[in-house]
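Supplementary Data S3. Sequence and structure tokens for construct A.
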Amino acid sequence: MRVRPALCAIGLVGLSVLGACATGPVQTQPPLISRQEPVAVAVERDGDRWTADYALDRDAPAWAFFRSALLRETRQPWRPAWWRVETPGVVLERIGDYDVLRSVDGGPVPRRVRIVMTPQEGDLEADYDPALMFSDGTVALFSGQFDLFPLAGAAAARGLPRDLNGVDVPGGPARITWRDRAGPVLFKGERKTEVTALDVDTYVLFGEASTRLGDGVATVIDPGLPRWLGDELGVFTPRVMAYYASRLGRAQGDTPSLMVSWTGPTDSITSMGGSVLPGLISMNFEGEGILDPDPRVLARARWFIGHEAAHFWLGSQGLKYQYAREAWITEGGADLMAVRALQALDPAYDVRAELQREVDDCVRLAAGKPVASAAERGEHRAYYACGAVWGLVIEGARRQSGGGDFFDVVAEFQRRDNDDGILSRDEWLGQLTRLSRDPTLANDISTLLDQGVADPSAVIARLFQRTGVAFRLENGRVILI
């Protein structure tokens, strides 16, 4: 099965599941913004024609899109191929790490710009897919793809850091109006003829897919998805959400939604992917391997839902990381939360195999390379695997200091960091030191983050040994027992 990293790429032979387990790193703390009236954009579907009409709020020779992640498989930008600027004298191109609108003559970009879009499936590196495509023609568009900010010149994009968290930039989220000539759009679980919203971070649905509400979770499931899988997702999602709530309290925000799309029964493929946004889990399935009930597909789908649901408490609308390079805090934490939840809900779940995969992947991806900069290499999986390994370390320290598990660690973070909602690296490592009374643990993790080591297995073995995580060394490999 191929699992697409949800914002988590975990490869299994013949089976892939990719999940936005939110994700690889996604901007969770906004940049510092100089505000005035926001940019306005009208997103409209008229039959097969999709347009985004911008009303820019100032004169500028170039505008950069905040969300400019690359396609995962090709590491190429998606907008230049999928968007076409219809306004004369304006071009869309990749400059540095950003997709940029610029004027051809170097003067200000016209205040009114029309873009013609071709929504399609596309898995991005550590960001939300621009569109979810349903088998009946329904399409869901991600709101954040339309946000942009002005530049003093197109060349200025080359000097921008990849991570804009805390960087002072002008502008901010666009005020978006959504409409469909064919009928109402679905926005946050409600059908509306037209809706205008600012900074909502969600998917807006164009089409007739039906919504079901039950057990505290609203679901929109592609009618083409094999029924056995849709039924399972509809049952398991509220179960795992209820377990998290029992351990960490009710999730913040409105009633959560699950949106599941189906690409179709592509030959020789079994694939899943997705992401989580405030109040919304999105998933996509593809391949002939999903047509009939399969225990492996079911196990990965449950784990995937567990990971994404965990982000309601640690990630999208719970505690957030401070900088993108600290995504290991939320992604690895969500991985470990999913493992512990499935362990509690399914007695047959193979806990050791899942955690061993985390250890092996962390060793592979941290060898000779600093984990903090993994995103620059396109190795976002390092945040998930190493974050989960370090989650085992802090969980072990918690058990040694008075009992409990990783959920008790997260609950303590909630109590300590509830004011700003940010769980920083210093706060995470500080809590590890308080629990263990051993500052060398934080020092070893910092070395793996900032410098890298030739033999991560040796460092991980020392971390496990000092915190009581059961393992053995076999030919230099750390094996959990």
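Construct B, processed identically:
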Amino acid sequence: MTIKTATLKNGFRIVTEHMPGLQSASLGIWVGAGGRHERPEQNGVAHFLEHMAFKGTTTRSALQIAEAIEDVGGYINAYTSREVTAYYARVLSGDTALALDVIADILLNPVFDEKEIETERHVILQEIGQAHDTPDDVVFDWLQEQAYPDQPIGRTILGEVERVRSFDREDLARFVGEHYGPEQMILSAAGGIDHDAIVAQAEALFAHMTPGKAAAPELAQFHGGEARQVKDLEQAHFTLAFESPGYRDADFYTAQIYSMALGGGMSSRLFQEIREKRGLCYTIFAQCGAYADTGMTTIYAGTSGEELGDLAQLTMAEMRRAADDMTVAELDRARAQMKAGLLMGLESPSSRAERMARMIQIWGRVPDITETVDKIDAVTLDAVRTHAAHLASQSPAAMALYGPVSGAPALEDLLARRAA
């Protein structure tokens, strides 16, 4: 398997990987524009735009877009994150050109029909309502907002209801004009594909685009704080966050391994101590997310209101203890889990296309997988303990609580006891 890259004169980037023996292909366009690129009055427009991509172009109706891919047994979708919006498809190898043509069409020729905008507005409002009715979803939005208050990276991706109700055709077109330039796009394809054919087609479809001058997103500033909403639910939803390295930081893999050892699986510290030994919850985990200039180590648990205080205190105790007695066995187990997840994922052309696009966005190149594995292997026990000690004494932090949480300790008290 060979990764190949190309860049058109206008800055449009292409990366492909031919996977011998595969009869299918995954391909898509990753646009470097997400929730953190929105101004306050635009909050939610990147996600709205993603929905509108499938609602008709100057050459295809919404139905024809769906039929074009599904008539050949393929699949097409999109997603919006805080740093990127992706439009992608999975098809048989012989239909790669068709898939790229459809994706290019929805990006280059949207009509933003007013009737379709109103229809999709109702769909998105239903999506927001569904998120608000899902406690273990909405609590993470509150946590993000507490971590990065009054910043684009801290706002919900879906947007607030009032904003979504106000968006019109001009708002969508303005965001496209500001952020959908060729230099912000990466075409990534993996599977049974032909690099030269994809580059030639990309040249025909995208070479006419004029580079733009998109403003850089506002730098993230982790502030922290507490949000709690008392509601009569069966479970108390507890989330806690600390700032961690961004994905370009030298300590990125150290932070990833630490979060895996702390709460990344059934053998992790939090799972064993809080669920298995004490039975205080059904779900508890830790994860480490990263952005270009910041990151967050996040802990989540769902428990009863009566047991929330004990769970919170034990979580802090485990964080403090990890700085002192994290073992080589735990390090090796977390390292193995990370490498296995990475390598198993690469058996899928969709995962490979996603990884290549992200690597081009982050580094401007696709590191060989052995380079990534070497960085994971290079993490030492001392580095993990040092990182654990940093988090165990770090302030500020962010906390969000939802449900029967009136008796939960304040964040300030938890941090004070953790450091004791």
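The radius of gyration is 23 Å. Residues 114-132 form the longest helix (19 residues).
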